[in-house]
Write a structure and sequence with these properties.
Chain A: Keywords: Protein transport, Transport. Chain A: It comes from Hibiscus syriacus. Chain A: One of its GO terms (biological process) is retrograde transport, endosome to Golgi. Chain A: Belongs to the VPS29 family. The structure holds 2 protein chains of 2 kinds. By secondary structure, chain A is mainly beta. Chain A has one domain: Purple Acid Phosphatase, chain A, domain 2. Chain A contains 3 helices and 11 strands, in the order E-H-E-H-E-E-E-H-E-E-E-E-E-E. In chain A, strands 3-2-1-9-10-11 form a 6-stranded mixed beta sheet, with helices on one face. Chain A has a 5-stranded mixed beta sheet with strand order 4-5-6-8-7, with helices on one face. In chain A, strand 7 and strand 8 form a beta hairpin. The C terminus of chain A is likely disordered. By secondary structure, chain B is mainly alpha-helical. Chain B contains 35 helices and 2 strands. The N terminus of chain B is likely disordered. Classes of the chains: A mainly beta, B mainly alpha. At the A-B interface, strand 9 and strand 11 of A face loops of B.
């Protein structure tokens, strides 16, 4: 039973000062096994903070990140699932499902996590899931009005993943749950 | 169909103590289950089987209920869990996820312990199957009893229980091999002719087979041959019969249900099964409500051990108490794991046989008399045997314990119980002591908890003592009263003597000094030792500030009145040194007061010089634990006595004597045992700082008060009297190097004029101050290094803060010394 935290687009310190205190109180070290971060942290201090929550930290580069050595995309396997990570500003049109699906096929992953739009979305698409955890700090965005702070926690258990979405709406933390079961691995016939 | 087993006599089994109950002597698992109260002591196999089955059902239900899978919704998930409440990051303690995480933490602890369980028997204990079972049992028990969650040591109680069951299974399989025909069901010898038309019924054959059928179902299987068996084997057969009462669930010796049985045994052992001795109490850290004393049960039980020991062998008891060996240092482990760590597994099984065979029902001898106290441990036969066992173990080490002079080596002997011991003798002794233990379960309060209250771990303990224990407190406070009264009288007498010898000593200063001593003593009278420390500290702290101002005034005054300055110094020294003895060094007081007496009696005489001792009591090496009062006083008193003797020598002795004397106490002090006493470490380090500040106070206060009074006689007398105390006070410290140098730096001219003397001494004052400051600073650095090695981080913080204050006072001292040296 693996807990994976997905978040991104914090834009600290340029657009936001810190995570909302309610989120911070929930993020306690010891519970989460992996953290995947879509990008735009932007400074190293944020990376250090995330490291304290969990030592296994994966970050991809957003366009405002000051650390230039993060990769553009990242792939990892957790349990039975393959996860893909990318910031999303590279995929145009930004936030478009079909383009993201293209990326998902490219990376050959079951779960694709991207950001940049600062809006939480989760699509089940073609046997896979495309998740956008939104902005954890609620930083303003050039393409979205009305940004709510949000992040995603995935509970990967065998062939099943439960996606918990935490959103801060009107000062209250709202939690939503999405279940997703992976179909047994099908062998693709080679062309 | 019940078979009367009670008729079976005890088969002779391998060297087990003869008083075993007849049945199941070789089946420890079953025997223990009976003794622990899980299985009834009834004679019928059926009863046994039924009770076994019930207990197993209970465990299975518990297991299903408590092992939480957060994915599986509770209660059949009629209501889908609210995601806001039930998400993994939920802070809500009731959510399934929180419970899951809590259980995960406990599991981590359990795993850690289990991986280190009985490495010498790893062939059994470290197999994953066994480990899994142990883990589940421990987790379930701890979940069931959340008030005492998992503590280290519980796994060691569980392991032998499991082992015993395992051995039973093994013996069962042995028996199976030997007596195969009893166990397997053979029908092949009696063929039924399966021809359809004729019902060829061979009655003879049928009756034979029927007999076999009956035999295989009931207990009277092949009656003749079963009865012919050894009763032991018979028992095994009957217990493991798959067709007996309750079917398979009732097989008393069953591998499949080993976990269930072990859980039941563990539960019975821990909760005491309505008996008097419950092991779970020993794991509790807080005092239980129903206990008479305000102490945690294990401390109380350790006190019970010492109480019994004092009755049996008072010399050994006093020896141990003198050394400061608290019973719980070793008894904690002994009691919590029921001697599991002191003996090999086989020996342990023998011991536990004995212990479990004793009845655990409370004898209710707990007296309501407030003057007396009864230990709960000794309130049942089983508890009495446990206490007796522990005492006999201590007695077996008697010679080596009496031979040791320090507490650490004593503890080493006790904690590393020798491998090769005559177990039989030990147990016989324990049996004989058991009766004594039960009868003597009435102890006057003062003696019962003498050691415990003397070295209280935290001041709050004394506050937690319930009012029912008022008499105990009174008893304890009586002792300190007398002790401190005595000291005060001694000091007062010394003071009078000094007064006489010094002639016109300013009464006001004297009075103030006397008042101060009284004040300090009265403050220290009424409270147990750690509170004493606290109060002394507070006292010093409060006057420290006003005395800082005094010091600056004094410095100003020194310029004005040379003579006065001289007296200041002398008086300061005098009171300074006396103050040293009157200081919070409770233990050192004894030795120092003796020296005051002697010094005063020395009377007038030539004065060698005015000696300056600014820090007669620099911080004790950080490793020394001040709370070891007895030890410290022992060491310091020979040292100070030595110094007294030296004082009687002619004046012209060389300063070389001094370093010698000083080295002696330093050695002794360094040998004092390093006890793991957290608060004492704290108080000792704080005490060091306070002592320093205390020196300042005295110095300044009496300098100021005595500025305007003098006579030359007084001066001489004071000097004379001051010098030896200064020597002594120096001796009672461990600061040889500084003492040596300051000694050497003193001018020895006796007949110098006052002025010269004074100037010289002032200069020396400054020099000595500087030296002392340097020493102190180096000790601080040392301390810092030492502090880093201490494992209590809060201590570090505390010491750090005090270091800062002490360093600031050091800086002020530097200024003073500069001033003085300029003069």
């Amino acid at each position: 039973m693996v807990l994976v935290l997905a978040l991104g687009d914090l834009h600290i310190p340029h657009r936001a000062a810190d995570l909302p205190p309610k989120f911070k109180s929930m993020l306690v070290p010891g519970k989460i096994q992996h953290i995947i971060c879509t990008g735009n942290l932007c400074i190293k201090e944020v990376q250090d903070y995330l490291k304290t929550l969990c030592p296994d930290l994966h970050i991809t580069r957003g366009e405002y990140d000051e650390e230039t050595r993060y990769p553009e995309t990242k792939m990892l396997t957790i349990g039975q699932f393959k996860l893909g990570l990318c910031h999303g500003h590279q995929v145009i049109p930004w936030g478009d499902l079909d383009s993201l699906a293209m990326l998902q096929r490219q990376l050959d992953v079951d779960i694709l996590v991207t950001g940049h739009t600062h809006q939480f979305t989760a699509y089940k698409h073609e046997g896979g899931v495309v998740i956008n955890p939104g902005s954890a700090t609620g930083a303003y965005s050039s393409i979205t009005y009305d940004v709510n702070p949000s992040f995603v926690l995935m509970d990967i258990d065998g062939l099943r993943v439960v996606v918990y979405v935490y959103e801060l709406i009107d000062g209250e933390v709202k939690v939503d749950k999405i279940d997703f079961k992976k179909t047994a691995t099908t062998t693709h016939s080679a062309h | 169909m019940s078979k009367d087993i009670a008729k079976e006599e005890a088969p002779s089994s391998s060297g087990v103590a003869p008083s075993e109950s007849p049945t199941f002597a070789s089946l420890r698992g079953v025997q223990w289950r009976i003794n622990l109260g899980i299985l009834p002591r009834s004679s019928s196999i059926d009863d046994l089987r039924r009770v076994t089955a019930d207990s197993r059902r209970r465990y299975a239900g518990l297991r299903r209920q408590l092992l939480v899978d957060p994915h599986v919704p509770k209660n059949g998930a009629s209501n889908p869990p609210n995601p806001v409440m039930d998400n993994p990051l939920s802070q809500n303690p009731d959510s399934t996820w929180s419970r899951f995480f809590r259980n995960a933490e406990m599991e981590k602890m359990v795993n850690q312990d289990l991986s280190r369980l009985y490495p010498e028997h790893e062939s059994y204990f470290l197999t994953p199957g066994c480990q899994g079972m142990l883990r589940r049992i421990l987790l379930l028990w701890c979940l069931r009893h959340p008030e005492c969650s998992y503590r280290q040591g519980m796994h060691e109680l569980l392991a032998p229980l499991m082992y015993v069951l395992h051995i039973d299974i093994e013996s069962l399989s042995e028996v199976r091999k030997l007596y195969e025909d009893q166990f397997i069901e053979k029908f092949d010898g009696f063929p039924f002719e399966e021809n359809g038309d004729a019902y060829n019924f061979d009655f003879k054959k049928f009756s034979d087979s029927l007999e076999d059928e009956i035999g295989s179902q009931g207990n009277a299987k092949k009656v003749c041959s079963l009865n012919d068996l050894d009763p032991e084997i018979q028992a095994i057969v009957l217990l493991s019969d798959a067709y007996g009462a309750e079917g398979e669930l009732g097989i008393v010796l069953s591998e499949k249900f080993m976990e269930h049985d072990a859980y039941c045994m563990f539960d019975a052992l821990m909760t005491g099964a309505r008996g008097s001795v419950a092991m779970a109490d020993f794991f509790a850290s807080s005092p239980a409500a129903e206990f008479q004393s305000g102490l945690p049960p294990v401390i109380e039980a350790s006190a019970a051990l010492y109480h019994l020991l004092s009755i049996v062998d008072s010399s050994l008891h006093t020896h141990l108490v003198e050394l400061g060996v608290e019973p719980q240092y070793f008894a904690l482990r002994w009691l919590r794991v029921l001697f599991g760590r002191e003996f090999s597994l086989q020996n342990l099984l023998v011991i536990w046989d004995e212990i479990f065979s004793e009845d655990n029902s409370p004898l209710n001898k707990v007296s309501k008399d407030s003057d007396y106290f009864s230990f709960k441990l000794e309130d049942s036969f089983r508890g009495g045997l446990i206490a007796a066992m522990a005492v006999s173990m201590i007695l077996s080490l008697r010679s080596s314990l009496l031979a040791t002079e320090t507490a650490t080596s004593c503890l080493q002997r006790l904690l590393k119980f020798p491998e090769s011991i005559n177990l039989k003798k030990l147990m016989e002794k324990a049996k004989s002591l058991q009766i004594l233990a039960l009868e003597s379960n009435k102890a006057p309060f003062s003696s019962a908890f003498g050691g415990v209250y003397k070295c209280k771990k935290s001041p709050t303990n004394s506050l937690n003592v319930p009012s029912g224990l008022g008499s105990l407190k009174n008893n304890r406070s009586l002792l300190p009263d007398r002790y401190w009264e005595e000291k005060w009288r001694v000091q007062h007498k010394a003071e009078e003597l000094r007064q006489n010898s010094l002639g016109k000593h300013p009464p006001s200063g004297k009075k103030r000094w006397v008042e101060r001593i009284k004040f300090r003593l009265s403050r220290t009278e009424s409270a147990p030792s750690p509170a004493r420390n606290e109060k002394c500290k507070k006292e010093h702290h409060s006057i420290r500030r006003c005395l800082l101002e005094d010091l600056t005034k004094q410095l100003g005054l020194e310029d004005v009145a040379e003579n006065g300055g001289c007296f200041e110094d002398s008086n300061l020294e005098d009171h300074h040194s006396v103050e040293v003895q009157g200081e919070g060094q409770n233990s050192a007081n004894k030795g120092s007061i003796a020296t005051i007496d002697d010094r005063c009696e020395n009377g007038s005489g030539a004065v060698v010089s005015e000696e300056k001792s600014f820090f007669p009591d620099p911080p004790i090496p950080p490793g020394c634990s001040i709370n070891d009062h007895e030890i410290y006083s022992e060491k310091s008193s020979p040292a100070s006595n030595l110094s007294v003797d030296d004082n009687g020598d002619p004046r012209g002795r060389s300063p070389g004597d001094l370093p010698h004397r000083v080295s002696l106490p330093s050695d002794d002090v360094s040998h004092s045992p390093l006890h793991e006493n957290e608060s004492s470490g704290k108080t000792s380090s704080t005490k060091e700082r306070r002592n320093l500040s205390g020196k300042f106070q005295w110095f300044r206060k009496y300098g100021r008060s005595n500025v305007n009074e003098e006579t030359s006689d007084k001066h001489g007398g004071i000097n004379e009297a001051a010098k030896p105390p200064v020597h002594d006070s120096k001796c009672s410290t461990a600061d040889s190097s500084v003492a040596g140098t300051s000694c050497n730096s003193h001018p020895t001219g006796k007949g110098d004029t006052m002025d010269q003397n004074m100037m010289g001494t002032l200069k020396n004052l400054g020099q000595a101050m500087l030296e002392h400051i340097q020493v102190l600073e180096s000790v601080f650095q040392q301390n810092q290094g030492q502090v880093g090695s201490l494992d209590n981080s809060s201590r570090n913080i505390l010491v750090g803060k005090e270091q800062v204050t002490a360093i600031t006072s050091l800086k002020e001292l530097r200024k003073m010394s500069n001033l003085l040296s300029e003069m």
